[in-house]
Amino acid sequence: MEFIDSFIATGIGSFPHKEEEEAITLILRDFPDIPFWPQLPKRSFLEGMVAQYSEGFPSLRMDQKEQKFWVDTSSGYEKEVERFYESVEKEDLESFRISEDHARGLRLLTDLSQQEEVRKKIKYIKGQVTGPVTFGLSLTDQEKKPIFYNPTWKEILIHHLSFKARWMEKRFNDLFPGVPTILFFDEPGLSAFGSAFSGLNRDDVILSLNECFGAVKGLKGVHCCGNTDWSLLLSAKLDILSFDAYGYLENLSLYPRELKTFLERGGILAWGLIPTSEDIQKEDAQSLVKRFRTGVEILSKEGIDPALLERAILTPSCGTASLPIPLAERVCQLTAEVSKRLREE
């Protein structure tokens, strides 16, 4: 699927609001070209980044009062795993649905599909799923060992997330026939890659990501809001690299060969240009447009064709759930304004 637009805006996913109607209002106002469903972790523990996609995972145990969940690998999980693989073999996508308890904002899709004026403006529909590395490092067994390091459970989690993504993409296609889809796999956990505290293996990471990407028919991307080994992501089979351009543009520029190859094969950068920190209070649209142009200059000096950088998406640097509501709304408004200015230049 070819991406032909320049500088259109979308969001990463999370909001600080507790009511989905408030978040949806922002999305329709500021991201009409690429609307997405809002994640509301302050509404419910079940909308946390990992809990949201844990529904249906075999041998999952949850204590909602203590807001804890884990995988019990000690005994008695065989039947649950057997049922899980039966659903995989039958390609029973409904077994992997995300219920309203875990994602109230998903009703946005149904609402949008019924509004003809809104539908006419939509160029893409975006969703997000927690990536296999972040999910597998965060979800532990009863001994608090991350399941990503257990080959049996890593295989299960890759199937699990792949089918969650397939279910979501089918939901998009059923509600919006003919509208291209974008799915981001959110991977903040990759910020730990290469550190002395990380046991991640490069080949394992790339293989896990590629298996998830292979489940998606539309555009697929990775969002990483920290610094990482960008050559790893750029060598994976993704269409969109979503990164914190406000904080880590110069780090990305250290990988010019890999970035050039990615862009020349049709890859797209999603520039997280609008900060989702207190820095948002010192920025305005003019300063952020200037920051984007400086970023293009930095990458151009490394041999990147500026024309390839015009094929871009504008986003906040991360989700906005950690911000007070007024600042989260300012982030959305500035993202839309920067997008508009860049398109008009």
Summarize the structure.
With 345 residues, this protein is α/β, with parallel strands linked by helices.
Helical region count? 13
Number of strands: 9
CATH architecture, by name, is Alpha-Beta Barrel
- The geometry reads as globular
| Share in β-strands | 5-15%
Residue share in helix: 40-55%
Q: Main β-sheet, in a few words?
A: 7 strands, parallel
What's the multimeric state?
Answer: single chain
Strand order of the largest sheet: 1-9-8-7-6-5-4
Topology order in helix (H) and strand (E) letters: EHEEHHHEHHEHEHEHHEHHEH
Instruction: Write down the CATH class.
Output: Alpha Beta
Mean pLDDT: 94
Overall structural domain count: 1
Rg calc: 19 Å
What name is given to the CATH topology?
TIM Barrel
Helix/sheet category: alpha/beta
Low-pLDDT stretches are none
- Terminal Cα separation, in Å? 26 Å
What does this 3D model show about the protein?
The protein is α/β, with parallel strands linked by helices and 345 residues long. It has 13 helices and 9 strands. The strands form 2 sheets. It has a 7-stranded parallel β-sheet. Strands 2-3 form a two-stranded antiparallel ribbon. α8 links the parallel β6 and β7. The longest helix has 25 residues. The protein is globular and about 60 Å long. The two termini are 26 Å apart. The mean pLDDT is 94.
